[in-house]
Amino acid sequence: MSRPARGRAGAGKQAGKAGGAAVERALVVAAHGRHYVIELHDEPGVRLHAFPRGKKSECAVGDHVMVERMASDQCVIAGIEPRKNLLHRSDQFKSKLLAANIDQVIIVLATEPGFSEDLLGRALVSAEALHIRPLILLNKTDLTERLDEARARLELYRGLGYETLALSVHADPAAALALLKPQTAGRSTILIGQSGMGKSSLLNLLIPGVDAQTREISAKLDSGKHTTTFTRLYHLPGDWGDGGSLIDSPGFQEFGLHHLSEGMLERAFPEFRPRLTACRFYNCHHVNEPGCGVLEAMAAGDISPRRHQLYTQLLHESRQQKPW
């Protein structure tokens, strides 16, 4: 991926002009392809349709950008301010930006339909690589037929130190809200997960008037020409204290991490990290080398074969030719 353009940091409208238009700071609150909705920093609540200058589309929801007003309800994105981080997924051919400048990833799972452990593992690796706090959320605990199975599958991740919440948005929304409020207040959080895990119900619980906000954003994105599946940012209620935001992303079935290097991958497995210095060879790949600290820990039962299998699959993918 090419580097995003860098805009000038600063509050409010800039004194200088670019192309004859005043430059203003804004937050990207929705994205679909090359179409964006931005919220002006100086005019909270004012949202405009925005598009990038040139052919490349390198903005993500959560980006702070510099914009030039082209019309009363439209603007062009002139630059992107430096990011704290950028969460994205990628395959061999393309990259999909998810969100920028986030503090937390909530991985939404459910007892039914069954969740993909491969996607869970990939989401955790992505968060670890960016030093973003992950939180695993098991929804639909009122559907008890497969509840014990789901809890058992998550024991591995609890053992690795990942925090897990179990709740039912439908059966006990008050209890769910009580669990989630302290986890999200004051943080920029993205919800990710497969379709059918209950992310929409979660949004309706956390964001008052979410349907109206979604319709407003859809109109700004000109949803007649686009699907209704787009990434969007919602501000958490003001009475939560320190504010914060919640970013909703479309459900997905694949989470490619082709952009992570081998060195980034091995360090994104917390159970690997203490063993990396125990390898006999400095360039050990932790696959089948003799004297490998990771393989020895797996043989001793300290590293799960399921986790090592995910690592070897991601390592294989990272070695594929990257045309971008």
UniProtKB/TrEMBL annotation:
Q: Where is the protein found, in the record's own terms?
A: Cytoplasm
Name the top EC class. hydrolase
Provide the cofactor list for this protein: Zn(2+)
InterPro entries from the UniProt entry: G_CP_dom, P-loop_NTPase, Ribosome_biogen_GTPase_RsgA, RsgA_GTPase_dom
GO molecular-function terms, A-Z: hydrolase activity
Residues reported to bind Zn(2+): 279, 284, 286, 292
Q: Which Pfam families does this chain map to?
A: RsgA_GTPase
Record EC number: 3.6.1.-
Q: In what residue span(s) does the EngC GTPase domain sit?
A: 100-253
**Where does the CP-type G domain start and stop, copy by copy?**
90-255
| NCBIfam families attached to this UniProt entry | ribosome small subunit-dependent GTPase A (TIGR00157)
Q: How does it assemble?
A: Monomer. Associates with 30S ribosomal subunit, binds 16S rRNA.
What role is this protein assigned?
One of several proteins that assist in the late maturation steps of the functional core of the 30S ribosomal subunit. Helps release RbfA from mature subunits. May play a role in the assembly of ribosomal proteins into the subunit. Circularly permuted GTPase that catalyzes slow GTP hydrolysis, GTPase activity is stimulated by the 30S ribosomal subunit.
Q: What is this protein called?
A: Small ribosomal subunit biogenesis GTPase RsgA
List the source organism: Cupriavidus respiraculi
